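The material for today's practical consists of a large collection of protein records. An example says more than a description, so a record of this kind follows:
***
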Amino acid sequence: MAAFLYRMGRLAFRRRWTVALVWAAVLAAVGLAGMTAPEAEEEPFSMPGIESQEAFDLMEERFPGAAADGATARVVFVSPNGEKVTATENKKAVEAAIAELGDGTQVASTVDPYESGAVSEDGSTAYTTVTYKVDAAGLTDASRSHLDESLAHARDSGLTVEAGGDAMEDMGGPSGTAEAIGVSVAAVVLLITFGSLAAAGLPLLTALIGVGISLFAITALAGPLGLTDTTSTVAIMLGLAVGIDYALFIVSRYREERAKGRTAQEAVALATGTAGSAVVFAGLTVVIALVGLSVVGIPMLTEMGLGAAGAVVVGVLIALTLVPAFLGFWPNAILTRKDRKARRAGGTPRETRKVNGGTRWASFVLRRPLPVLLAAVAGLGALALPMTDLQLGMPGDEAKSTETTQRRAYDALAEGFGPGFNGPLTVVVDAKDADDPKAAAETVSERIGGTEGVVSVSPAQFNESGDTAVFSVVPTTAPTGQETKDLVNTIRGDRPGIESEAGATFEVTGTTAMNIDISEKVQSALVPYLLVVVGLAVVLLLVVFRSILIPLKAAAGFLLSVLASLGAVVVVFQQGHGADLLGVETTGPIMSLMPIFLVGIVFGLAMDYEVFLVSRMREAYVHGERPAQAVTSGFRHSARVVVAAALIMIAVFSGFIGDSDAMIKMIGFGLASAVLLDAFVVRMAIVPAVLALLGERAWWLPKWLDRILPRVDVEGEALTRPADPVAEPAEKNLART
């Protein structure tokens, strides 16, 4: 591996113009394809293998043309100053608003609250549901403008009018603010780390090129593959983070080799052969974690994982080819000011084994490995404790800011009708084999209506064939409450008796039931996913480090950091501690996909730091240093760069904490805290402490296993050679900047 990448780096350096032009052509080609690709049609969210999805599919089949997945807007009218919405003037204003809402070209139907009984007992509140012929993604700007104008006209009458539902969601793509924040902070970190504008700018430039290629490719494939905006967002997030980090490690190793007196070409080749090997295997661990998301069986997660994995692959390829080519264009501009000054004076800088922050910290841990290990594990364990109280769900309008009309509509509806009206259940009765379908549906409705925790049941609506009925069930509790989950489980648990009595079958669906089913599916898939991903990564690290204990230690450290980060998410977003600081106005259950999403991404990134840090230790050990000396050497060369890489990733992810969407805010916080804990506690404290305690045993590998494992030479042992004495003559022909 190292020898192959050595030759690749040298070739990219020598053929830099060709490499640069090839990547420019790739960027232009995918850019043209992305810009000319037809706009992708948003596919409806689906979750195979759960009851609520099966019920939804049955509705689609039995009610053709009814737009079961059509967008909806629930408009709430509240009378002013203690008046009633049934008063003559207020009733006229509500009816006029409903008539105007129904005039939209994409509107399928509206419901009169006075005829449907959608008026609160005290007469202060009424609501109507506007159903559209298309899903939320298919709504045109004209339809959204018409909805907004209708709400504004209704407010002019003196009523308080708010609206929720997916028709109110902003379907625009990412604003780019988070990415801009991440790039800005990354630039500052790189400038401090390298002390050179060129050295700081090169990783940013190559990362942005990689993100551009990935984004255009996803856009071009969005139509044929049905990719969503979320896929692009995750690909940008990870592509930017790993793209900067991978280039950072190559550039850092290049400067180190130049400090040993090597020529620019030799330094590039060695940097690509050694640090490039670490980049390849670090990238592989990220790809394994992301592609492994397909194990969960959730199409959206599969798309996100594959899209992000593609962005990571592009980042690896750019780090191995375009970065060496750019180093060929500016071989000396990347160097430190001291090295550039020495070369202009005709001298050759020599490597110094100076003590830096990394060696000082390593020495501290090596002197006290057990206390450091116990303190780090205890701290992460304490942070992970709130995980025992983890409640999964899908936060809805109740998690939005009170400045949004969706949140105000949610609160008004809960106050006027009860919290359950914000999350009604939908029951689909399949009476195809029943002797009397109407009687069967009535029996199911009565039995479910008599269940404790049910406020009301709507009249059943039949399809044209008269063999399928649909009705709504309003719980007494909020959509995300544990009581509502218990109610759904109770209804489903009573199903055998109800179906036997009615002579028909039924299923429970709706947004609330869908969220409950998703949570249960994700929880059941988490352990198999961990086994697959961690198992494959352990095998990969076994090949890289040729050690039994180091891969196991890496996996255990990852589990500690991810559990601790999930605990931090629970503390803030579920328990509410420090929520105000992040702009979280309402706490509640953690997004169902959050644990598995966090595990997938953080595992790959955590293994990045493991590979980069421990590969330098392995390199020093293979070249003859004692275990403790190897740990110190690894920190001398890698600690500062790993810290910079972690800070860059934290900056990229933290930018998403400022997003107004509660789920994006939660993802940003979870990823940022996970990287913080993994890089600074696990990799910087637990790793050296464990290696110090293990000593020679850390690198132990049974002889029989050593014989059958492939040798990849990630530490570049085959590249070890004396410094090339022919340095300056070749460099004088290169541009100096």
Summary: Residues 721-737 have pLDDT under 50 and may be disordered. The chain is about 60% helix and 5% strand.
